Amino acid sequence: MSALAIENLVVNRTGIPVVRGVNLIAKAGEISVLLGSNGAGKTTLLEGISGVIPASGRIALDGADLTRSLAGHRARAGLSHVEQGRTVFGEMTTEENLRVALHPSASLDQAYALFPELVQRRTVLAGMLSGGEQQMLVIARSLVGLPKVVLIDEMSAGLAPVVVGRLMSAVRKLADSGVAVVLVEQFAALALAIGNRAYVLRRGQMVFEGGCAELAKDPARLHHLYLGDAGETGAEETRQHA
Amino acid sequence: MNSLLTPAVAGLSAGGAYAILGVCAIFTYRLVAVVNFTGAAIGAAGTFVMVALTEHGMPLFPAVIIGILAGALVGVMIGGVMTKWFSGASATTKAAVTAALLVGIIALGLRLTGGQRPHLFPDLVSGSAFRFAGVEVTWGSLLTVTLAVGLTIASDLFLARTRTGLQMRALSERPMAAELIGIRVRVLALAVWGIMGAVTAFAMMIIAPLRSPDFMSLSLLVVPALAAALIGAFRSFRAALLGGVLIGIVEGMVSALEFGARFRGVVPFLVILIVLLWSQRGARWDAAR
Hints:
Chain A is α/β, with parallel strands linked by helices.
């Protein structure tokens, strides 16, 4: 059963439609990888789903319609959004960052089991952690809220490859625990390697939906999906400039 | 010596109230990121509700409770305006909005309370608690200072030890991230405004009999309150406590001087000036070099 079902979603920024009629499904225990070039609308789509910015269409979590709900209500219903930019509460310690999001039925041990690196840093102010540790912390903070769906936006930005690999394996573990993950990622190959289902967004519209393995095997197709037909694009741009 | 000690101790009541108002100002700033100019006016509204009820024959205790609730309600209403329309505004804009609201509340308050018409402010507590070095320490002084100390300790503990306190700190630091982890952002923000309104109203009820009995005078106690908060750099409850009490004591001592009584109200402004100059000393020395 799909944990998250998005139907015909439209998200505007300053009155301009950035995401146009997108459908997406995220199933429990699976990672849905959302790919696309810069400006394709990936972050806007996640923000529309989590309620950071308003969206029209339909957003359903375990069958319940959340389209008109505020961001806080969606979060309490089990829809967690790990924003890009490592949004730790910098003036609180690592442990306080976790405690503030702790679900009554969850335990901090779950977070420390996923990221043992954080145990030694639990009394350190989150603002003093390294970039990798901060990213681990925001994912762990999401985990202790016992979400049904986690939206993760560009978690690898600015991090060393070894840290990115560590985060990828943690996200896979998170999905294996039964959570549905929607992963927006710039390192397409790494994301496809851990993902189940792939989506490619171009200019606000979904241009591909299929298995990650299928897309990973065909880099040329992925390249084409990212950029579209070069000739067609060039002609379109020429028409726009004219 | 005793001639200065007596007014200094007399200034404790005002100092305790300034400290309470200063701690409330820091609480509001730290948790909802607003330099709140309406703090004392909210308290004044609650105080005048209490006075109106006692003038109509209601016993003091229920009138005080209703006055405190009225302060909380006015606080929530101001908070409603700030969270509904200005939650994403800059700190400067928010401060300007509260300054504008202060002017509006004072105008409305003066209209509703009969302008300069004198009112009888009942003493919540009266009489001498004990003598210290030959000077009477009143129950009023003792109560305000005790309340200020209690509020300071409680504020520190609340923010550090409780889940709601943690949520409020998260809210103050990153409102959107706080909302995305499920914190009830608007409810918490309104709770901060309501609690601050209630506490301020109670502090004002204690200090009101010592001040000019009109709505504007009480509302302008925001000046010593912000001076105390400034001493705490809008961060430290303890420094604000100390600052508020010291301002009250210095005011008391100045008012006892033959030439100083008329300048008593200047003390908080001087404190603000000194703290601002002190906080800018590094930039000034760098510019001079």
